[in-house]
Amino acid sequence: MKILVINGVNLNMLGIREPALYGKKDYKSLVAEIKAHAKEIGVKVTCVQSNYEGEIVEYIQRALARYDGIVINPGAYTHTSVAILDALKAVQIPTVEVHLTDVDAREEYRKVSYVSEYAFLRVTGKGFLGYLEALDALKEKVAK
Ligand code: DQA
Hints:
The protein is α/β, with parallel strands linked by helices. It contains 5 helices and 5 strands; from the N terminus they run E-H-H-E-H-E-H-E-E-H. Helix 2 packs parallel to helix 5 and helix 3 runs parallel beside helix 4. The structure holds 1,3,4-trihydroxy-5-OXO-cyclohexanecarboxylic acid. 1,3,4-trihydroxy-5-OXO-cyclohexanecarboxylic acid (DQA) binds next to loops.
């Protein structure tokens, strides 16, 4: 089983950006924790990050027939990108949406999520742990 983990805009700035909200650990640590958990539960994982909407769309398109599941935190594109939603709908790969923070408890404009329309699960406000839970959920879903 192969899972693609996509982190979107500004998530490469983890550890530097608003640590009170997003924590002090950097993107490299996030990838290390995801990989360690994937190994533990016996799934293969690839982690990518991009600050470009079109590149995120391409990662999703290229996942077709290559990955069994997608974990995605589009960052701010969550609240704006119909293109990312359309790409997910096109490839029809089971997807979990993750946010480090509790987006529904923040500004009004963060309450809209286009990706939610497609994702079968949304994990918010759990920090790095959210990504690990997403892997568990995908493993369970795809194994069925
Ligand atoms: C985020 C929440 C978004 O609103 C924000 O723009 C991000 C990160 C999160 O992980 O909590 O960049 O997706």
